[in-house]
Amino acid sequence: MRHLFRGTLRDDQGSNGVETALAMLVATPMLICLFELCMFCYTTAVLQYASRQGVQYAMTHGTDAPDCSGPGGSVHSACPDVAGANVTAVVMAVAGSSGHFLSSSQIQLIWANNTNNPGNPVTVQVQYPYRTYSHVPFPSLTINGTATGQIVF
After folding, report:
1. 122 part of a folded domain
2. Domains in the chain: how many in total?
3. In a domain, 2, yes or no
4. Is the pTM for the entire model greater than 0.70?
5. Residue 69 in contact with residue 48, Cβ under 8 Å?
6. For residue 6, is it within any domain?
7. What pLDDT digit, counting tens, does each position of 82-134 carry?
C-alpha cells in the first residue's frame, strides 16, 4: 500500500498543463494591459498629428486665401467658413483615416484676437474620451491633442 502512494506523489504527468494554466492567468492580463497601453499611445499620436494637420490647414486658409476659414479679418470681412468647419473636417478626416471614431471628441478652434489675418496665431485643440478596445473596466481617460501655428496667407 505504501508503494502505491509513493508512486502517485512522485508522478508528474499533467504538471505541464497546470503550469501553463497558471502562467496564462498571469500572462493574459499583462498582454491585455500592454495592448491597451500601445493603443493609448497610438491614439495620442494620432490626435497630435490630426491637430497639427488642422493647424496647417488653418494657417494656409487665412483672410488672404479665396476660400478662407475663420472669423474674418481686414482683407475679407466675412469668410465663407466663419466657424472653421473646414478645419474641423480636416481634423476628423485625418483622425478617422487611422481607424478612430471621433464622434465623441470635441474640436476647438482658437483664433487670436478673433481674426484670421496673416501673422496671427491659430490653435486647434482636440479632446477625446479614450475608450478601451478590450472592454476591460479601466479608469476613464481624456486624450488631448493641441497644436498652434501662425497664419501665413
Report:
1. yes
2. 1
3. no
4. yes
5. no
6. no
7. 889 999 999 999 988 777 777 888 999 999 888 888 889 999 999 999 888 88
Average pLDDT estimate for 2-28 = 77
1 lies in a domain? no
> How far apart are alpha carbons 41 and 29 in whole angstroms?
18
Q: How far apart are CA 76 and CA 33, in angstroms?
A: 52
Pairing status of strand 141-150 against strand 121-130:
antiparallel
**Residue partners of 14: CB distance under 8 A and separation at least 6:** none
pLDDT attached to residue 2: 59
pLDDT tens digits for range 33-63: 899 889 889 999 999 999 999 999 999 988 8
129 Cβ contact list (under 8 Å, min separation 6): 104, 105, 140, 141, 142, 143
Residue 80's domain comprises 15-150
